[in-house]
Amino acid sequence: MLTFLIRRFLQIIPVMIGVTLAVFLLMHLIPGDPAQIMAGEKADEAQVEQMRENLGLNDPLHEQYLRYVGNAIQGDLGTSIRTNRPVVNEIFDSRIWITMELAFWGTVLAVVFGLIAGIISATRKYSFADVSLMVVALFGMSMPNFWLGIMLIYFFSVNLGWFPIVGWDSWKHMVLPVITIGSGGAAIIARMTRSSMLEVLDNDYIRTAHAKGVSERLVIYKHALRNALIPVVTVVGLQFGTLLGGAVITETVFAVNGIGRLVIDAIKARDFPMVQGAILVCAVAFVFVNFLVDIAYRLINKRIDLN
Amino acid sequence: MSKQPLLEVKNLKQYFPIKGGILGRTVNHVKAVDDISFEVYEGETVSIVGESGCGKSTTGRAILRLDEPTSGEVNFDGGNLLSLSKSKMREKRKDLQIIFQDPYASLNPRQTVSQIIDEVLKIQKIGTSSKERRERIISLLETVGIGSHQVDRYPHEFSGGQRQRIGIARALSVNPKLIICDEAVSALDVSIQAQVLNLLKELQRKFQLTYLFISHDLGVVRHISDRIIVMYLGKIVEISDTQSLFENPQHPYTRALLSAIPSMNFEEEKRERIILKGDVPSPIDPPKGCRFHSRCPYKMERCATEEPVLNSVSNGQKVACHLTEKGAVDYTKILVNN
Fold it and tell me: Which chain regions cross the lipid bilayer (chain A) (predicted)?
């Protein structure tokens, strides 16, 4: 297990190099001169040149990259153009935690509802319950986040008045955004669990379990589900990335001040150090979550090895 | 052999519904097993043979209620298994065990070998302490040739033959009276097949086991069986002791099946090869009359309308064919009709 952890951890390094490189090059790929943007539209040639010198844009590219990575490791992601505060503070003071909360509960919702629906569907194949759940899952997968969010606001906030429309203060604020962000994942997990369970339930070792006299409940939960979960765990990990992407839209719809909205605002204001920082943090979070998923995967499936 | 059969299957039917349409209504049935009856006596090995899809594996599963049969009776040791409640059936499973074909699919990949066997011991309340059960597991595995140092390994760490031995140890662990071997050696290499077959025979002597052996491999069946049941499209066409079946097969289908066994003996090459035309008809809509009439070289007019019943042609040999209704037939004197 320890060698597994070390080797899996070492695999993160090339991924991180790729991520930082992409984020770094972003600054050089966006149209326009960063120095010009930072100095402001009214700045004259000398001021822009001064800015360029300050930003180190006249140095060779690899030096700039190494400096960027070095600073990032020390927790310096630059200064926001819009607010003039360090990017790290902008992200970590509250923004990222709100998004993480949203993503966490979205994942919980997706896993709980997805698993329950998947198990019900698989154990009652072709029944009314199965067909209805899978139709609902199809809707869940096909509905765009922004539309679902708006519909939820319309019915539950505007018409029924059950939940507040915007903000992020109490659990009541969280209900609708969490449903919005988690529904797609729940649908995918439900369908994945169903097909994986059906495949497992058709195995001879399930018949063996029945032949041993294992009760129906135990056959499903102990023998079938544990084996069926292996592919589902992978999907959960990947879903987390989709969730972070979805956060941009969901946070905008519900006016939640998370990192997604921060990115949108930063893009609008051409605040590229902010955009870079936010993308980098999200990418690191995604890599980290998938690292955890791989460990979980290894724990539930002893046959997985890195080679 | 005692007079009282250990297992008596009576009019067993297994129809699988075919769902269709948006509402998932039952539109038709696959008649996988259609009204079969036979007995198995204590201590003997009875084989069921037939092509893929003839219903032989379904019969095995239906007897154990791994799939609930549509109708019929399965009398085992004096009681009808099909009338038992689910919990009573679970207790009864102690006496009937099954070994599956695919040794890779029949062991739960997430359980170690000792967990696999320990689970069944616990359920069937064999052995009081975990220490006692552990000793039993080790001795069982040694009986089938798996060393005690391997008991805490996972199935994927074993070869196919070893896994099948583990499956046998698991089946043996509850001291069953009857073991159904569902193509138990078909997935193994020939050399391993012989080892496992010999192990099964040895265990039969040691533990007075009764086997219902399901196979499509006539060579294997000849080696191990006392009696053989031949199935075609969900029906029994012939039941016979092994010697009579191989020396004097009476049903045209049995004859075709036997003629298909490859021979190593060149002098025997002259023997007739009966090649059946066409495919096995669909069990959803089987041919009327005799189910074999659409492919039978000896087809008569009545075969298409009248269903033959199993009748005794000689001591210990029963055949379902219109040709043999007045007794055994000498096929060298019958002309092929088409």
Answer: 12-30, 102-121, 133-156, 171-190, 228-254, 274-293
Burial class (CB in 10 A: 0-12, 13-18, 19+), A182: buried
**ipTM value greater than 0.85:** no
Note whether B108 contacts A131, CB cutoff 8 Å.
no
| DSSP symbol at B252 | H
> Considering only alpha carbons, which residue of chain A is nearest residue B99?
A208
Amino acid at residue number B110: R
Task: Kindly give, in sequence order, each residue whose CB lies less than 8 Å from that of residue A87, ignoring residues fewer than 6 positions away.
Answer: A77, A78, A79, A80, A273, A274, A276, A277, A278
Residue A36 near residue A43 (C-beta atoms within 8 A): yes
Tell me the average pLDDT across A6-32.
84
* Out of A75-79, B208-212, B232-236, least confident range: A75-79
Is B23 or B261 the better-scoring residue by pLDDT?
Answer: B261
* C-beta atoms of A301 and B107 within 8 A: no
With tokens 């998004």, the residue in question is A99
**H helices within chain B, ranges in order?**
56-63, 86-92, 113-123, 130-143, 160-172, 190-207, 218-224, 242-247, 252-259
Q: What is the pTM of this model?
A: 0.77
Above 90 in pLDDT, residue B238? yes
Q: How far is CA A33 from the centre of its chain?
A: 31
